[in-house]
Amino acid sequence: MADFNVVASLDPLTLVEGIARIVVVTSGNEVRALYQIMEFRGYEKLAIGRHVEDMPRLMSTICGVCSWSHQLASGKAVDAIFGRELTTRAKLTRNLVNYIQVLDSHLLHISFIGLPDLALWGEAERDIIKLMSKNPEVVSAALKTRSLLKQLEKKLVGKIQHGPLVVPGGVCKGITREEIVEVEKVLQEINSSIELFYKFFDERLVKSQLFKELLQRDEFTMRGYSMGLVKEGALELYDGALRVVDHKGRTVNEAGNPVTYADVIGEAMASWNYGMLPYYKPAGLKLFSEESTIFVGPLARLNVAEKVPGEKAGEEYKRLVEVAGGKPMSNVVLYHWARLVETLHCIEMINEIIRNPALFEGDVTTLAGESRSRGVGIVEAPRGILVHDYTVNSDFTVTKARVITPTTINNTAINTSLSKVSMQLAKEIKSAGKPSAETVTMLESIVRAYDPCNSCATHCMKIGERRIVTSFRIVVINEKGDVLWQG
Amino acid sequence: MLKLAVIPGGICGGCDVALASLGEKLAEILKYYEIVYWPIAVDKKLSNLMNMNHIDVLIYMGAITTEEDAKLAKELSAKARVRVALGTCSVYGGIPGLNALYKPADIIKTISLLVDTKLESSALGLPQPVQHMAYTDVVEPEVLAPGCPPTDKVLDQLTEILLNYAKSGKLEARTMLLGDSESLCNNCPRNPKTTKIAMPGIKRLYEVKLDSNKCFLEQGVLCMGPATRAICTHPCIKFNYPCIGCGGPVEWGSDSGLSMISTLASVLLVDDEKKLLEPGLARELNKIRDVLGTFYKYTLRKSKAYALKNKAGGEG
Amino acid sequence: MSWRPKIIAFFCRWCAGAAAEVAGVSRLRYDPSVVPIIVPCTGRISPSMIVEAFLNGADGVLIGGCHTPNDCHYVAGNFKAFKRVYLLKKLLQEVGVEPERLRLEWISATEAPKLVKVVNSFVDEIRKLGPLGGKHA
After folding, report:
1. Domain coverage including residue B184
2. How far apart are CA A5 and CA A11, in angstroms?
3. Which DSSP letter does residue C132 get?
4. Is residue C20 domain-resident?
């Protein structure tokens, strides 16, 4: 099967800035907007031959932003291989780190990408410095919160990324009551920042005319399959069943056994993208079509879950669903709101965990269990479903490894969403030779809503002037590869 | 103002975060330096940088994974007065450097066997991957700042060097490896009680409940501490996890894997050698099923083992 | 064109090294492809000395030490050598070098004929394997 009809060549050197870009390919009347991930990895290869118990640390270096998520997904796969059930203390410790990871990443996105993107809609610069000049209190709260969270990670686990935590069947060290005192202090400060974000988001955005308009725009709709973990029907980030809900809200898949992910997620490999193009396998591959597109992350999670644990988070979730006009929610602008709901959820869950005496008592590792040759670990990383799947031989060295990241899954969704702008792009390029400013905003906003991490480069913090930039560029080319326009 | 450029190669983003988290130290640096390029931090075009005649300090983070990375690293480094390799990927190849043994085509083939569908090719270009390299494979930097991510100790020393250079225009030495010139073992908080470390056998991490006070080697758990440069204040060991060697070898040009093999031989079952004899010792050593991954998690690309692989001409 | 292998031999001065002397005095001939280096104890041979030998042109490395368990002049240097060589052979295998290019033998000071036999059989083996990296230098 061919990937798309428009064949064009673009010198890869054209704007190799950043790790991803949007390429608009024109050929006659046909126009195609593509999201291209240009980063070449190969962790599936370097895993082969390794002692499987080394995988959590090795694989955590796939990403410097969601390092803990990789370590935890990898750890679950390794637990499965050794057939080990975690002790309550180990499970709570891992959950705690997972919630901190999701919270940290969400706050990064909300403050540096989400709020500027929406609050400064229509302006040439939609970044945190611009927001700083208009709403300094929100931005400084964001910066402060982030640094508090980093301190917290350092206090709890020693390192802010790629640190030690997971061992087969547990964690290497438990957290003590003394250490948790610090966590409580930081949490209180974070709480007040979040309230500030929330108020800002609510008053300036949710109630705005712009928000109502964006919710109506067809370009922002995604009627694919929502996928996420649930536990007894509720939102779950570490250890649930994999549920898929279609655009009519029907549950089309729910599997407790993580190994069955491969029946649900298919992957296509295209030569123009180092990211794979996953699809909903039972539907068969229909490239750039919602009929086989899966999307993951905060919005998808709230679509598959029936309720959100946590008092505040639960209420906010209901309000979101109401404004969205019911479920499943299919407008990607709502990703931003869903992310906020999840930050509340994370904080409430962290508070619950640190008040649980079991966090401080008992063994952190178990060695009991019956080993097997394959293990799959799935967690909800900040950006969605993350799968690590390893096969080992009898001496527990890896013979096969497969990793599916949330950004990979959303790579298809982003491309499907971008294709909705094709008609508009074709019109503008035909008449003006380039996309209009409004369309460029649209393209960027679509990508930003999904919060891709292929590219920790899309999480961009401007240090000198403290602002964020879009480090993905937009290039318009024709079928010969001539660059017609670049943004 | 001096010109400072931060160039990312193949990165995970961890070094960016570490550098960005410098806070006040970064503010101090920015009194003397203007950031002329740093994709995650400043919105400046690469083309501007290419047109500059000189850069005062160039910090390279990440590994060289594509032809474009290599070309850019060489061209830009040629006009930099001080070159800094930041992070273990840049200095030693890092964890992705375990892939240095393979040609890119082999890696792509392994991955392609995992997917369900392969789409017919279109001509839209992607950067061409090259066999994995460290920055130090294409340039000889003046400052080597290892760590995954670079530690506070290393970043403090780097800040000092940058500030001194801004004030004096001079560097203390032609090549500076940051961290302390001793093995991590030297100041280990676990401080083995005996004068002689005896490793009671080899335990893989899945076989053991880690003791949070005892020297890892004395528990039978492999710890890279003896062969690793003291770039940190033992965060992993304090969190009850053995050192896995992100700091690289104790001295520039030495080989941490070979040092560790040597150390292991010196401590493993030292009191039982004459009882176990060769077959008994071999049985224990056979528990290590992955020599390269055990001894070279971060440094394979710059190791003598890799050089030997090249010499032997064996391919993936 | 005939190719002659380059072989580095590390001999302990108390045993294999002494045996090599005896072989010389007794006019026992062994293959001249071998360059012996006398060390105080096989426990002194670091893994990097062996790997450096290969990197600098050796096609094979032979180590001669004192018999286990009790002959080592320094109590147990020979066991250290055994463990190092054992791990190095695994490493050689993983980087695509035939582990047979590295050999450890116990040869006492009185075993000059054994030394000659070991050297000659090792040279034969390396000849069969050919030059390291497959290129005739």
Report:
1. 180-312
2. 19
3. T
4. yes
pLDDT of residue A135: 83
pLDDT higher than 70, residue B122: no
Residue holding tokens 């790629």?
A162
> Cβ of B67: how many Cβ atoms within 10 Å?
14
Q: A402: pLDDT confidence band, cut at 50, 70 and 90? A: very high
Inside any domain, residue B119: no
Q: Which domains does chain A have, with CATH numbers?
A: 43-411 (1.10.645.10)
Q: Does C86 touch chain B (CB under 8 A)?
A: yes
Distance from CA of residue C35 to its chain's centroid?
10
For the stretch B168-190, pLDDT in tens is 999 999 999 999 999 999 999 99
Residue C19 sits in a domain whose CATH number is 3.40.50
B92-116: pLDDT as tens digits: 999 999 999 999 899 888 988 888 8
d(CA A341, CA A313): 5
Give the tokens for residue B218: 């004395």
- Same domain for B277 and B165: no
- β pairing state of B176-177 and B143-145: parallel
Q: Is B87 on the interface with A (CB under 8 A)?
A: no
Contact A464 B112 (CB under 8 A): no
Q: Does the reported pTM lie above 0.90?
A: yes
The ipTM value here is 0.95
**Is omega for the bond preceding C113 within 30 degrees of 0, making it cis?**
no
Residues of B within 8 A of A167 (CB-CB) are 205-206, 210, 241
pLDDT, tens digit (0-9, with 9 covering 90-100), for A254-268: 998 999 999 999 999
The CATH number linked to B144 is 3.40.50.700
B229 and B260 together in one domain: yes
**Distance between CA A133 and CA C118 in Å, rounded?**
81
- How many angstroms separate the CA atoms of C60 and C126, rounded? 6
8 A C-beta contact, residue A12 and residue A273: no
Distance CA A290, CA A417 (A): 9
The answer on B222 and B211 residing in a single domain is yes
Q: Find the closest chain B residue to C90 by CA distance.
A: B291
Please tell me the distance from the alpha carbon of residue B242 to that of residue B226, in angstroms, as a whole number. Answer: 11
Instruction: Provide mean pLDDT across the span A97-126.
Output: 81
Contact status of A231 with chain B (Cβ, < 8 Å): no
Given CB atoms, is B291 within the 8 Å cutoff of chain C?
A: yes
- Res B31 pLDDT > 90: yes
State whether B170 and B236 are in the same domain: no
Sheet order of strands, A20-27 included? A30-37, A20-27, A473-478, A483-486
Residue C121 belongs to some domain of the structure: yes
Which chain B residue lies closest to C70 (C-alpha atoms)?
B274
Sheet of A398-404: strand order equals A374-381, A384-392, A398-404
What's the mean pLDDT when you consider all of chain A?
A: 86
